[in-house]
Design a protein that fits this description.
- By secondary structure, the protein is α+β, with helices and mostly antiparallel strands.
- The protein has four domains: 10-79 and 279-322; 86-178, PAS domain (Beta-Lactamase, 2-Layer Sandwich), CATH 3.30.450; 188-274, PAS domain (Beta-Lactamase, 2-Layer Sandwich); 332-474, 2-Layer Sandwich (Alpha-Beta Plaits).
- The protein has helices at residues 12-79, 92-97, 128-134, 176-184, 216-221, 231-239, 276-322, 332-345, 362-369, 371-388, 416-430, 449-466, and strands spanning 103-108, 113-116, 121-123, 139-140, 144-148, 151-162, 165-175, 192-198, 203-205, 224-225, 244-250, 253-261, 267-274, 350-359, 394-399, 402-409, 435-441, 471-474.
- The strands form three sheets. Strands 1, 2, 3, 4, 5, 6 and 7 form a seven-stranded antiparallel β-sheet that branches.
- A hairpin with a 4-residue loop joins strand 8 (192-198) and strand 9.
- Keywords: Cell membrane, Membrane, Transmembrane, Transmembrane helix.
- Residues 350-475 form the GGDEF domain.
- InterPro entries: dCache_1, Diguanylate_Cyclase, GGDEF_dom, Nucleotide_cyclase, Rev_trsase/Diguanyl_cyclase.
Amino acid sequence: MMNRRNGGHYPPGLLILASLVISVIIGICVLNFYYFHEVEQSLFQQTHRDLKQKNDKALNYIESMIQTKFEWLELFAFYCDLPDGSGNEQWWQQVQDYEKEDSRFGVADTSGTLYYGNRETQDISTRDYYKKALDGEKNISGLLKESFKGQDSIILTVPIIRDGVVKGTACLELSSDKLKQYLSDTDLSRYGANMIFQKDGEILISCTACENQNSLFEMLKTRKFGPGQTFTEMEAGISQGLSGYITYYENDYRRLLYYQPMGINDWYMATFVETEGYENTFHKIKSLSAKFIAGSTFLLFCGVILILLIVHTRKKEEKRLQKDYLTGVYTRETARKLVEHGLKAGGKNRFYACMFLDIDDFKKINDTFGHHKGDLVLVQAGQILSACTRQEDVIVRFGGDEFCIWLYGMRGRKQPEAIAQRIINAFHVSGKVHASIGITLIGENETEYDAILRRADQALYEAKGKGKNQYAITN
């Protein structure tokens, strides 16, 4: 049986409430961890989609630009005079007008001599792009190192055909800076850039992410890749003409790279982006969510504290109503509920005896010394009874100067006579106050509360008949 005087353990309802609160807090944390994970994955996937979209846009832009240049070259090749080296051809003025800092136009004859607008010539007879054009195929050259005013360049070439026979070629040379300008003319933020490289990793048109680098592969070999990704897998995929994404780290910044074949020679278009933009967005969401969690948890905590205060106040009030305000022992009504429940519970431990105690000459004490002194005697009586009994026993102020003690435990463990004598001795030691005690034993199957009290009251009557400071026992 629980310790009746200290209230025992926490009630099950309070433990359930505490468990529920802890479960809610854990649930909030788990749900928000899941939410953060989903938000991060969603932002990362959106970044992948945006990256591919920008790569496609840059590729389409380059393809459109090249297609436009080819159409212009083909139109020129259809109407121009055949190059004969005289310098009097009608196209010289057009060639001169197209001579710019980052691009130039030229016409080559069948011997491989290329004529530029500044009257400069160049032998291109051994060049692959020239040979392909002589075979009737328009094409784009590979990267020509320092071919144009010390810059790398590419040449777009179309054949000049008359009566089904190639009579020369029309060429448009674009510097690498011009191509880089085309690649940069996109809506990529300051966190991203485009570049063009070949299958073997050689960089044709560089960007800010790979300046001073000649090979994309050499650059990436030294970088740390994202989970489940390796440089070897990327290199193998590119050699097979595949497109794909990679994540790598540079100077503690995470970068995303999307690459796809351009359909021009063995060129690849690559788009880089630092993840700082989406990470800032994620951290902002995470910060706001963390504040929401903290606020929610705080409000929940305040709510729990309020509930606990209400429960504590109610329990305190209930406890106050259960105890006699003067002596601190149980009231008559509360004791009846406790004892009746204990009598019906059964088991080895149960109420085995009932004592009825009356303070001798209490009315005389009140009349002689006043009610204040009488109250002090009652308080002292409650203290004596609490000191002489166990926590499991139920002490009751029955009314006026009468007290009732219900002894709890195994029958015969402590003889009630010994306890009664201890109480009487304590009253004797305390001064001139004396008490009489009536005792009745409770049968193993006895459950009638009132019948037990009547026997204890009868025993008290017999004890008083013996004189002061006496006890009597009855079965």
